[in-house]
Design a protein that fits this description.
heterodimer; A: 254 residues; alpha/beta; Rossmann fold; nine-stranded mixed β-sheet; 6 helices; B: 281 residues; 2 domains; five-stranded parallel β-sheet
């Protein structure tokens, strides 16, 4: 069995987002980086499926040179190898990202064989375009199911549970398929020290795709105006309890 | 010239309709025209109309179908917009980071595909759109179709609909530490929520998580105990009417973004609130 998972390097934003001077990006000078939360569950699912069924898992990313850190993180968790589509500082829109990923997946499949499943996060934490996985599925001519909280292999098909307002909808699609997943699909493991050691020796293939002009072109970012909350202190420690209950009573909750 | 609205008959669709009118007189296609839900078939039916613009609600379903329309028509797609100005290019303002940032972007497309973020636009009182009649797409478009529905398990007060939420973060300290939050929630008829740090540690199930990648909530009162208030968490709180923050660190972002704060050890404060409620009953 072969499984692919696609991830994106994003900053850990913490409490307050600060923009660069030209307002086209987040100022990441003092920030750490990770992958989108939904994608962490995609990586975990890929690792579990290969542990259970044998075969190979491959992680793909499109991002700057430093994104190799996130690829190593994924390999520390058990992914076998990585393919890095390197970018050079400029924003790629969802359409261009999907086209580049679809091409490199096709190229890898031509040599190594078809991926039974390709995982994506339902949407990235930063740009939230809700489209890269779906576009890759269409480009490859495969079924795509989105927003999944549970994935189960059943023979040559995959059973997919999608969270909806009142419960879950279930789909059954044939392999190969593209699945976009959401946090809650599983509880991702932490990397082990031996896992980190092994990751250092795993292969990363570096490619330099051409960036097409974006058709959804980022002009500038802005921090939205605050919600105008002005905190009123009700005091400190246990003696503040009566004031808290007054507030709950005023809200009609007691 | 066909401007299409993918209509799920919600308030958000009416917001999308309001923005769509800038591009012409919209006609609509119902989200549930094929039952059960079949997103590829729906996207095929939309593309079949060769629309000049398509609008939908920026919900999970709306974004999913629009991505399929975009892939099929080989067009760019701007998700979760809050403002749209027609032209060449179309200028959009859209949400990033679950609403923690706004992005101004140029959409270079002869046929704009746009979803509209919930609660972002005041709906107009213009006429409802006329529904179009569509042909049933080819059978292969129905490979991806809902086969079964699982009812939610009855697990007490639902987080998304709760009027009061008692929520805990890393500051709660452990799985067992949530007992005092459960107790207070029981007294208030509240749901218990948590931050992402808590689910990642395995203290609570993901279904309790409030935030950008968890549940978005809109209670009358949100009681945040030992939650620092990372943007990931705040993205889920935009609908909360009042926020009460309990934290030992008065500089924590959530303490700055709350309506009421109590500084100190939540392990003393939360039981004291429960005791005070009992005393007044």
């Amino acid at each position: 069995m072969r499984i692919a998972v696609c991830v994106k390097r994003v900053p850990i934003t913490g409490g307050r987002i600060v923009l660069t001077d030209d307002a086209t990006a987040i100022n990441t000078q003092h920030l750490g980086f990770t992958i989108s939360p939904h994608e962490e569950c995609g990586v975990e699912e890929a690792v579990r499926l290969i542990e259970a069924n044998k075969g190979e898992s491959v992680v793909f990313t499109l991002g700057p040179a430093e994104a190799v850190e996130q690829l190593r993180d994924c390999m520390a968790l058990g992914i076998d190898r990585a393919i890095h589509l390197r970018t050079y500082g400029r924003d790629w829109d969802g359409e261009a990202t999907a086209a580049a990923l679809a091409q490199v997946i096709r190229d890898d499949e031509a040599v190594e064989g078809r991926f039974d499943l390709i995982f994506f996060g339902n949407e990235s934490a930063d740009s939230g375009g809700f489209q890269v996985g779906v576009r890759v599925a269409y480009a490859l001519g495969r079924s795509c199911v989105t927003g999944l909280k549970k994935v189960t292999l059943e023979g040559a098909s995959v059973r997919c549970e999608q969270e909806v307002e009142a419960g879950r909808d279930v789909y059954m699609v044939p392999l190969p398929a593209v699945l976009t997943v959401k946090e809650g699909l599983n509880l991702p493991r932490y990397p082990s020290v031996p896992g980190r050691m092994r990751a250092r020796g795993k292969p990363v293939t570096m490619l330099n795709p051409q960036r097409p002009e974006p058709r959804l072109e980022l002009v500038r970012l802005a921090v939205p105006p605050g919600q105008g909350r002005r905190a009123e202190s009700l005091g400190s420690g246990a003696p503040a309890a009566p004031a808290v209950v007054d507030v709950l009573q005023q809200a009609g909750l007691l | 010239m066909t401007v299409l609205l993918l209509d799920d008959r919600t308030e958000v669709s009416r917001q999308a309709l309001t923005l769509a009118r800038q591009f012409g007189e919209p006609r609509s296609i119902a989200l549930d025209i094929f039952q059960p839900f079949a997103p590829d078939a729906l996207a095929a039916a939309i593309a079949q109309q060769d629309p000049t613009a398509v609008f939908a609600a920026g919900t999970e379903r709306g974004n999913e179908v629009m991505a399929r329309v975009a892939a099929r028509m080989r067009l760019p797609f701007a998700a979760n917009c809050i403002a749209v100005t027609p032209g060449d290019p179309v200028i959009v303002t859209r949400l990033r980071w679950g609403g923690s940032l706004l992005e101004e972007a140029r959409l270079h497309s002869p046929k704009p595909l746009i979803t509209v973020a919930p609660h972002s636009v005041r709906p107009d009182d213009g006429p409802p759109p006329t529904e179009i009649v569509v042909d049933r797409p080819d059978d292969r478009e129905f490979v991806v179709q809902v086969k079964e529905h699982i009812q939610p398990s009855d697990g007490g007060v639902s987080l998304a609909e709760a009027r009061v939420i008692v929520s805990g973060g890393r500051g709660v300290g452990s799985k067992e530490g949530f007992a005092i939050l459960e107790e207070l929630a029981g007294l208030l008829g509240a749901a218990v929520g948590c931050s992402r740090a808590v689910t990642s540690a395995g203290w609570r199930p993901h279904s309790d998580q409030v935030g950008q990648t968890g549940t978005k909530v809109s209670p009358e009162v949100y009681i945040a105990c030992g939650i620092s208030g990372a943007t990931q968490h705040m993205a889920g709180l935009k609908g909360a009417k009042r926020i009460l923050a309990i934290n030992s660190d008065p500089q924590a972002p959530l303490m700055m973004n709350a309506d009421y704060t109590v500084t100190g050890d939540l392990k003393e404060i939360v039981p004291a609130i429960s005791a005070e409620i009992r005393k007044r009953r």
